[in-house]
Amino acid sequence: MSSQPYSVIRFNKNTPLFKEGEKADCAYIIKKGSVKISKRGPSGKNISIATASKGGIVGEMAVVSDNPRSATVIAVEPVEAIAVSKESFDRRLEGVDPFLHSLITTVINRLRKTSDHTVALYEKIQATQDSELKSPYITKKAKINKNGFSKINFLLADPNRQTRNGLRSSLFGHGFREICDISNHFKIAEEMTRKHYDLAILDAAFGLKELNGIIQDIRHAKASKNPFVTILVMTESQDKEVHQTLRHAGCDEILIKPLSLMDIINKIEEISQNGARTFVVTRDYAGPDRTGFKGDDAKEAPQFSPPNTFVAKLTRNISEERVETAVQKAVLKFNAMKIERHMVQINWLIQKLDPTNGEPIDRFYLLDRINEVLDDLTERSKENQFDGSIKSCKDMRALINDLKSNDNFDLQSWQQLGMSQNNLQKSLPSTV
Fold first, then answer.
1. What's phi and psi for 177, nearest 5 deg?
2. Domain 146-318 has CATH 3.40.50.2300
């Protein structure tokens, strides 16, 4: 830093003012904008501990104590800050009162130790809470909290008004309170996007094709605040192929009509005790694990355990705020997993386009498939604010359109496509 006692420094959004562990040479007074302060916990995970805005001071702890930076500070918006050099800071404190300087140094060192302890404790508590939300089942000894039914956000979609009204009344009598009933399948996605739901019962009478499309959009986070919602489908069909199609769309369970209220309640209680909630993610499937499910590259599909909000509310005293926060974090992880699967798919398609492999190819079909993948990858990059990858997707799409307009697709064209793929991969965060 400059030897000047003060200087004004500007930081762009998402730019660090300083990082934990760095040597401290100045403190910052926030003149405009705001910053986020985070510390590494014992596991190495960054934990957000505070924010600071106009008039706030950051970095003073390390400047006074002569220790490395104890936290990382990042601009959450464009920031203008006044940097106060360590020498100037020390001179001002000592010039006021040597005793006061010593006292402040002692207090800050103690505060630093308290901060480290607090972060470690927070991480331990958070891990316990996350475990409660992710637990895929409750033990046989655990009892369902009947008051938990009143906390479940329940979506009931059935085109038959008589059936819908009868089920709603019966479910209300059993303790459910937050019930939304829908008669039009077009409104399912609209309602799922409007509100966080924990349980959905959908009737296949809307049409198999229509319902499959709705479930897939929910599971792929295209039409739902909670893509991990527990989904039950009611159907009169006993055709195994129909059931297989519904399961491959991403539903949890299938209920065969005719059904009584107790049939539904028993299934709900069975799911809460035994229903595995491990999800798998491929390019074109997301949902409950199906044994042996594989992606296009013939490898086992990646798995993860999302928050089971239905079980969490039914068996534990989990607040709505905690549930929604856990789901939001899981959606970001889910989007990152989908992006990773998209990159695997793009690589697979490009390898199929290799003009030296001697196999006949329909390059227009394969290039169109890459464009389809890029469309979804772009939307998920926007969701995760991956600005660099959004531009790379646009560049790659432009190249593909040029390649489609040319009569020949030679080795040079294929190499251009490979370079574009590499640029796209580099534009993604290292965590993807």
1. -125, -40
2. yes
